[in-house]
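Here is the promised in-class demo. Please do not try to memorize the tokens; focus on the logic of going from shape to residues.
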């Protein structure tokens, strides 16, 4: 049997898109977890060959591709091998047919594990579902095909067909820790997922048919507004910088309440508003959305939960493809919102988006290379009840986001400020060892040195997030070196140290970063 509880990347959650799927002759059943990025092209080919595709879910495409090869006389195993060559993206697939008492599964990128007991065999996308049955787990490798029979599992390589051995390992984790993937907290797990989720989003944007109407609505608008709360608002602010820097186009970031009060009377049907909400149910955002809709504005949704109110009301929507985010502090959802804004800025300027292909690798490199120095900064701020994050220009939204993360999960008072404003009042807070964090983009080093010196000459602690720079090093009490990129990609990478610093600062205080007091993940009240 197959059970699939998949969050749909392609197609809204609906009965027609519910997995598993059958082929046209109802001889093969299958389900998919992941993202088939060439599903649109494959659907056209399959329909031209006589296949009937009923859903908008890419999982159905996988079943029909396997069925196509079965019709041509191939075995089930051979058909899956051929499908592996045709299906692009990261995925885990599982199939069976009406003739054999076997289940077939293949892994490419997405998680897939196997377990075998005396008379049973199991395959799942995650470990917790199997642990109540057995703690002896076989981890599949990318390119593995497994053939399951009662009490038996055989593994083959998809590219060669060669049979291989895969050994089981005993897992001692509890159900809760297994759900966290071995990480202490969901927040840390979700920080480490950001490279994969960024790749998922970029693949989706390169393939989605909804991108073009989204882009067109922005190009034709008289005025563009980006509206969101909290973390989503910071993504809107960064998006505004991207539209200005890359597309020479004005986009006005706004809080929902501010949007109604400050811009409401001037809205027209020629304006486009991008509403940003991780949950798609944020009450403040929906209030502003309904107001804009009454004014006749074009409504564009950027969201993580398909089937949400924001999705259903939007004229055009795009998912940020993060999967579930459990921890209350947003991490991977913020980064993917920012990446989508960057992608849209490139499209507004009619520029090639291929530069984004390197981003997932750079994100992973940043996580790997900055972790220890983030722990060091967390130690430097231990014992202080307040500090400042300073950014200049394009890093100002990241300073605000870093400050918000600290406030959320350490309960410290932290402000994110445009660095040139620090001398206009807040500088009075600086005393010996007072911590001030500076997020310095590569093109802003000279101006930031002036702002850094204002703190250094007063014997404050200078905590730096920047690319490696000899001059900056001289001022730094502690330095987080972000991999070298450019002015545009730097803010995205600098986000990661800001997240890690807040996470380790929370751990130092023995607080649970996943569930900070007084806060909830989805805010459905005014």
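The designed amino acids, position by position:
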């Amino acid at each position: 049997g197959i059970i699939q509880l998949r969050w749909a990347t392609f197609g809204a959650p609906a009965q027609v898109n519910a997995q598993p799927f059958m082929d046209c002759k109802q001889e093969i059943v299958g389900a998919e977890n992941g993202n088939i990025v060439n599903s649109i092209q494959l659907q056209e080919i399959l329909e031209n060959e006589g296949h009937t595709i009923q859903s908008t879910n890419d999982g159905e495409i996988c079943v029909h591709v396997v069925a196509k090869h079965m019709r041509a006389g191939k075995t089930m195993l051979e058909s899956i091998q051929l499908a592996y060559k045709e299906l692009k993206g990261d995925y885990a697939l599982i199939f069976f047919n009406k003739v054999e008492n076997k289940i077939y599964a293949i892994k490419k990128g997405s998680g897939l594990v196997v377990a075998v007991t005396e008379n049973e065999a199991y395959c799942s996308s995650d470990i917790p579902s199997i642990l109540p049955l057995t703690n002896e787990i076989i981890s599949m490798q990318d390119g593995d095909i497994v053939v399951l029979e009662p009490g038996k599992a055989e593994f083959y390589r998809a590219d060669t067909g060669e049979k291989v051995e895969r050994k089981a390992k005993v897992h001692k984790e509890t159900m809760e820790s297994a759900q966290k993937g071995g990480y202490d907290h969901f927040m840390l797990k979700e920080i480490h997922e950001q490279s994969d989720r960024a790749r998922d989003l970029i693949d989706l944007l390169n393939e989605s048919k909804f991108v073009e109407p989204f882009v067109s609505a922005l190009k034709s608008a008289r005025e563009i507004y980006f509206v969101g709360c909290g973390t989503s608002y910071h993504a809107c602010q960064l998006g505004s910088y991207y539209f200005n820097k890359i597309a020479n186009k004005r986009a006005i970031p706004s809080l929902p309440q501010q949007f109604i009060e400050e811009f409401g009377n001037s809205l027209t049907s020629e304006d486009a508003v991008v509403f940003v909400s991780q949950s798609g149910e944020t009450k403040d955002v929906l209030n502003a959305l309904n107001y804009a809709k009454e004014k006749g504005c074009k409504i564009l949704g950027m969201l993580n939960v398909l089937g949400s109110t924001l999705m259903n009301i939007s004229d055009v929507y795009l998912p940020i493809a993060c999967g579930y985010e459990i921890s209350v502090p947003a991490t991977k959802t913020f980064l993917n919102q920012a990446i989508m804004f960057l992608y849209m800025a490139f499209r507004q300027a009619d520029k090639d988006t291929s530069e984004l292909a390197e981003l997932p690798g750079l994100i992973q490199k940043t996580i790997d290379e900055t972790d220890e120095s983030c722990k060091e900064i967390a130690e430097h701020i231990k014992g202080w009840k307040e500090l400042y994050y300073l950014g200049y220009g394009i890093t100002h939204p990241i300073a605000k986001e870093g400050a918000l993360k600290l406030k959320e999960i350490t309960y410290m008072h932290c402000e994110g400020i445009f660095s040139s404003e620090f001398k206009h009042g807040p500088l009075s807070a600086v005393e010996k060892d007072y911590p001030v964090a500076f997020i310095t983009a590569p093109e802003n080093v000279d101006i930031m040195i002036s702002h850094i010196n204002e703190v250094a000459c007063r014997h404050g602690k200078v905590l730096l997030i920047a690319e490696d720079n000899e001059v900056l090093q001289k001022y730094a009490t502690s330095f987080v070196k972000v991999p070298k990129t450019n002015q545009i990609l730097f803010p995205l990478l600098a986000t990661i140290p800001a997240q890690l610093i807040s996470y380790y600062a929370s751990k130092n205080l023995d607080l649970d970063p996943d569930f900070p007091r007084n806060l909830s993940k989805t805010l459905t009240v005014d």
